[in-house]
Amino acid sequence: MMNKVFVYGTLKSNQPNGRFMRDNSNGFAKFIGKGVTEKRYPLVIIGEFNLPGLLKKEDLGKQVLGEIFEVDEKKTQWLDMFEDHPHLYKREIIRVIQVDSGDSGDQAISQRVQECWCYFYQQFEDSQIKPPFYDDYNSSGARGLEYNQE
What we know:
2 helices, Gamma-glutamylcyclotransferase family protein, 5-stranded antiparallel beta sheet, AIG2-like_dom, two-stranded antiparallel sheet, GGACT, mainly beta, Hypothetical upf0131 protein ytfp, GGCT-like_sf
């Protein structure tokens, strides 16, 4: 069985953990295309490791850019382990607007809504939800909050 997953942080292509999506030793993943969340969510940078975290607070924040992958059950299980589901991040279905055609080259795919698994950060209190909220994560971006794997 194949699942679609939306990644918005370090697992995106050209980000610090993007290599894990290309590594088939932990299951299969195929890049489908770029996408943006249908609803607005707060994307924040968290703690000393500068973890990207999408918070499950609909209509607060921005529509978030990311990537859509099709993954097999083995990769889904690996992602659950990597994201510490359901403790640190929790996997939930959201609607994502696909904004390009990915590897397929089929332009008819553009702007199609996909239902995707997405990992929401869990360890926060409502009082901690405050701007800045981001619409796109880049570890080496201008905000100077580089992902710290140590």
